[in-house]
Write a structure and sequence with these properties.
By secondary structure, the protein is mainly alpha-helical. It has nine helices and no strands. The termini are far apart.
Amino acid sequence: MNGMLRVPRSRGVLSGVLLILLGAWGALVPFVGPYFQYAYTPDHAWTYTTGRLWLSILPGAATVLGGLIVLISASRPLAHFGAWLAALSGAWFALGSVIGPTWIGTQMAAGTPVGGSSTRALEQIGFYTGLGVAIVLVAAMALGRFSVIGVREARVAEPVTPAVPAEPVTTGAAARTGAGDRPATADKPATAGTPAMTGTGGSRRFGLRHKEATAETAEPAAEPVSPGNM
């Protein structure tokens, strides 16, 4: 199970770097944009407002943090957390400038884009809406990559089955030989009443001798009584 929760660190490198860059852009562009005539009011460099704190600095910092987690994490749950954090931050970039003023009023207002109609459209896309969509897209790609279980992780997660030693194979003669039928050896004589297994001929000779001994030790039959003895 632990193998399934581990992922290679290289899997989130691209997504993590992109999220860090996008988050840094979202947090800094309100302060450096006026240098390039690309700004919201107040169009002065490094001017702090409450609206920029809630709509740019905080979601940008959260996106950078999520990108760092995705970049360096080797744990699947932790990488998912970083990707979700970045995705929620991107959603706030896209929707915060729209729903924020309805909650708090002018304190969360982003200001007014400066320049002509084309410049204002690019500023809205680059500051909030388009930036948020790009962050959500990259975070979703990171979630998809970390949700897939690769072949390497599946092999690592497979339990190792110990090898079972093979049982010794006994021959037919050894299997049929019992404890009382052990052949005689130089160190241990054969069991009494059990013929020594010296071969086929030896067992046959033992049987013939046994029959002769039985015939000799048998008692003679009673002689018939003749009429003269009576």
